[in-house]
Design goal:
alpha+beta, Immunoglobulin-like, 2 domains, nine-stranded mixed β-sheet, four-stranded antiparallel β-sheet, 2 helices, 18 strands, flat
């Protein structure tokens, strides 16, 4: 009888302490489609959860990626694991899909059978678009020309495009904050003031940030900048140069001072030695 009671108590404790039956945390997922023209697109995924009224990144979380083929059919595409910031990137290639109609792509990101977090799903849908951009010159004025079309080459009107100039710390907006495409899907942005660039080369970004199409970028170089000469003094002997390029006077003057100090020390020691010998001879007499 006693053994039976112990068995019941042990089973009850096992059920209470079982991690499978404990309440799981609820994670939040964000999924965004990004693409740089000429490269594969990717899903940028971020996972976080709320603990002590603050959101923390979910690290080392396995996420399964599916593509929706139809309303009742999905295809498994792969798996990613979040990094220390709770982010992960999944590469996708939509350019290999050939169709005679505009396609909408839909991807599902799922947490499945995780020990700590509940099963959830986040979807991201987008249309394939083509964004081309270049620098042109008209009437001695430089312009940034960009054209946005769907996957079949039909122009997209009324979409907002940003024109940015790449700089060291952050891109610099050129002109207005954004420009709407016309009936041809195009924009033309005048570069009225000369912009400085090393060897006259500038790197521009034309960016589309849309719910329907994702974050699309076209990056290109244009030799239309104001020539900037390299004024670096790295190879010269200056106060801020590396030790191998120390100015000559900083080598010569301190060494002369050090040599003078050692000469004084040697002379003093020599004189002390002479005084010692002189006193020793005097004592003998």
């Amino acid at each position: 009888m006693r053994a039976f009671i112990y068995t019941i108590i042990l089973g009850f404790c096992t059920i209470i302490l079982s991690p499978q039956l404990q309440a799981k945390e609820k994670a939040r997922l964000s999924v965004n489609y990004n693409k740089v023209m000429g490269e594969n697109g990717f899903l940028l995924i971020n996972a976080k959860y709320k603990i002590k009224k603050k959101y923390q990144p979910v690290t080392n979380l396995k996420l399964n990626i599916y593509e929706e083929i139809s309303e009742d059919s999905v295809a498994y595409k792969g798996q990613v694991i979040t990094d220390n910031s709770g982010s992960a990137k999944f590469i996708i290639n939509t350019e290999t899909v050939i169709s005679d109609k505009v396609l909408v792509f839909k991807y599902l990101v799922r947490i499945e059978d995780d020990d700590k977090f509940k099963d959830i799903e986040k979807s991201e849908s987008f249309y394939n678009v083509i964004l081309i951009a270049e620098a042109i010159e008209k009437d001695s004025v430089h312009y940034i020309s960009a054209k946005l079309t769907d996957g079949l080459g039909n122009p997209l009107e009324g979409e907002k495009l940003q024109v940015l100039l790449q700089r060291l710390f952050a891109p610099l907006s050129v002109g207005k904050s954004n420009y709407k495409t016309d009936s041809d899907g195009s924009i033309f942005v005048a570069i009225e003031d000369p912009l400085p660039g090393i060897d006259g080369m500038l790197t521009f970004e034309v960016v589309l940030d849309s719910r329907n199409y994702g974050n699309i970028k076209k990056i290109f170089n244009a030799p239309i900048g104001k020539l900037v000469t390299d004024q670096s003094t790295f190879e010269e002997r200056t106060m801020w140069s590396p030790p191998s390029k120390t100015p000559l006077f900083l080598w010569i003057f301190p060494n002369i001072v050090i040599l003078g100090i050692w000469i004084v020390i040697v002379v003093l020691i020599s004189n002390l030695f002479k005084i010692y010998k002189s006193n020793k001879q005097t004592n003998k007499l």
